[in-house]
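Sample intake sheet
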Amino acid sequence: MGRKILRLIGWILLAALLIFAVLLWRNWDTVQRVFLGGLKVYETKAPTDMPANLTRPAILVFSKTNAFRHEEAIPAAGKMFDAIAAKNGWSIYHTENGATFSPDILAKFDVVVFSNASGDLFTPDQEVAFKGFLENGGGYVGIHAAGDNSHKDWSWYMTDIIGATFIGHPMDPQFQKATIRVEDKNNPATAHLADTWARTDEYYSFDKSPRKDGVTVLATLDESTYNPGEFFGTKLAMGKDHPIIWTRCVGQGRVLYTALGHTAASFSEPENVQSLTGALEWAMRLKGEGCSPNKVDAAAPAKP
């Protein structure tokens, strides 16, 4: 009787091990992205499907993920950006190829969107090309995972673009309804919003507020309206100053980061769609002030 029980336990353990092995095999890509330091994929050949003549203004939507991949949000955001571009008569090109980041190719675009891009994304030359693009007047809009800690090996990006380090998001529950307090309505990304904006998302916390000289906080998160909780033992409450959307200048370039956008539904919310439309308009220097002259202002005749 004892041997039969031991044999049964052995078969159960073997079956469990086989199931675990199959699950590990099926999800090996995710395991690498999340638990093993991320993928190490670096493209060196530029894409061949880029339109030969992009009309301006032109948007480059970049959604490469060498770390966690937002499987639902990325395609939802892509459809939203296509609709925004079509409505406004802007050119748009989507890619996950890091070799798009060369001086010659970036010169064809007015703004780069990191649409939940995550991980160590570029070769050193590609990083230099992106830095030069921004410093010489290009625009950047970063969404959600574009500001997480998977970019930590690129110190310039973390310091000069994001300006704070992601420490986690709520886990219990992960998605919560919270109130966003709009602090600055002078930017097209927030000009349409009411003073408070209640919505559901996965809300990021950072090691510090990015608020300092040169950074304009557009909106903050009211922590009294949700439970930040802990992220694997790290307490997530930032207190009264919990920025969630902010802008800064990098040379002549305009940078806007929004920590919103984990869910696919984020990209069908009218307020968020308008916010991202305004973010593009500002980053492309079509509206708003900051960093370098607006294109419309630069093209206007001098006043007598």
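Comment: The chain has a mean pLDDT of 91. The radius of gyration is 22 Å.
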